[in-house]
Amino acid sequence: MTVDTASNSDAALDEPLHVDGQSDLDAVVSDNDVVLVDFYADWCGPCQMLEPVVESIASDTDAAVAKVDVDANQQLAGAYGVRGVPTLVLFADGEQVEQVVGVKPEEQLRGLIERHSE
């Protein structure tokens, strides 16, 4: 599924967007002030454990949340140095500002977003 950036511009997104490729990710990052990107794999147990946290963050914060399937987007994962899943990358004002690997508590992820939100 590709991202329809025309309808996403400057609006809080209530659910994670599934992005496919660098151009989709670039569009989400450029259209939103703060973006949390979840690099995941369907076969990954920790990724599945993190899914409810990612969905909660998407619905309860002003940050946009994007999900990247590393199996379908190996080049994109490689471009961001993703060596294990889940890996979460935070963008603020178009720049990568944080990267965390593994399942993290929801409070920690919310704290990262709040630090970079206006």
List the helices and strands and how they pair.
Layout: H1 5-8, E1 17-18, H2 22-31, E2 34-40, H3 45-60, E3 64-69, H4 74-79, E4 87-92, E5 95-101, H5 106-116
Parallel strand pairs: 1-3, 2-3
Antiparallel strand pairs: 2-4, 4-5
Provide structural commentary.
- The protein has 118 residues and is an alpha/beta fold.
- It has one domain (5-116): 3-Layer(aba) Sandwich (Glutaredoxin).
- It is 40% helix and 24% strand.
- The chain has 5 helices and 5 strands.
- It has helices spanning 5-8, 22-31, 45-60, 74-79, 106-116; strands at 17-18, 34-40, 64-69, 87-92, 95-101.
- A 5-stranded mixed beta sheet has the order 1-3-2-4-5, with helices on both faces.
- A hairpin with a 2-residue loop joins strand 4 (87-92) and strand 5.
- The longest helix is centred in the middle third of the chain and has 16 residues, at 45-60.
